[in-house]
Structure to design on (232 residues):
């Protein structure tokens, strides 16, 4: 059967996590809550590692270098100040930018950090682009912008690329599954992380015909602590 975020939220923790998993050792995150109530996600250390490698594969395949500085928009008010161990070696260095701050604060953070890579949702990138066009100093121009989550409309893609003077790479991902698919550099298609997630496109619960639109259902192949099976 199909499952939904609403159903997952209504289940007690013991019924949506696997037996024998030490939840105290899990990494706990939460969805953004754009569809209603955020869902807490539990990832065992191996689950979290595989998910991170899935994101890294997409980033590296589209030109990101491990030593590039990264600026990433987040939905939380409080940004993470503590650095990960690997950042001490000069790789995957990241600065979080809260969506709750003002565009002027975003711009100041980006000028201070000067990232080569910027990661964000369409709305954040649009607002940033509009603020930069009003600014007299157009000095923020990362090498690559990764758009993640949501739908990237063509008109806004062109606007953001013009405002930030760089190219956008679209990634379809979620907090529940990680990197589901990423835009190919050679054509307009997407590479699906088929070794990490089973992707179904459904209409009324049944597979759609080629070229037909539908809902996406995912089944993770790496979420052993908190399984997601045919999850809409």
């Amino acid at each position: 059967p199909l499952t939904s975020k609403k159903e997952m939220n209504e289940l007690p923790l013991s019924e949506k996590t696997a037996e024998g998993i030490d939840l105290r050792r899990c990494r706990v995150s939460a969805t953004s809550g754009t569809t209603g109530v955020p869902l807490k996600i539990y990832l065992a250390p191996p689950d979290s590692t595989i998910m991170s490698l899935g994101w890294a594969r997409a980033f590296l395949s589209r030109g990101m270098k491990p030593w590039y500085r990264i600026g990433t928009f987040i939905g939380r008010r409080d940004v993470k100040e503590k650095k990960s161990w690997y950042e001490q070696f000069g790789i995957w260095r990241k600065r979080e930018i809260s969506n709750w701050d003002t565009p002027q604060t975003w711009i100041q953070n980006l000028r201070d950090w000067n990232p080569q890579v910027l990661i964000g949702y369409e709305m954040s990138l649009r607002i940033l682009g509009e603020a930069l066009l009003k600014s007299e100093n157009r000095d923020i121009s990362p090498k690559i912008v990764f758009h993640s989550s949501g739908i990237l409309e063509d008109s806004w893609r062109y606007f953001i690329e013009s405002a930030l003077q760089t190219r956008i790479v679209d990634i379809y991902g979620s907090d529940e599954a990680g990197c589901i698919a990423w835009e190919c550099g050679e054509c307009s298609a997407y590479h699906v992380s088929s070794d990490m997630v089973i992707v179904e496109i459904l209409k009324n619960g049944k597979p759609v015909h080629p070229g037909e639109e539908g809902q996406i259902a995912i089944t993770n192949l790496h979420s052993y602590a908190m399984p997601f099976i045919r999850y809409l």
User: Anything to note?
Assistant: The chain has a mean pLDDT of 90. Helices lie at 5-10, 13-16, 45-61, 103-113, 122-134, 154-164. The chain is about 25% helix and 25% strand. Residues 201 and 211 are 10 Å apart (CA to CA).
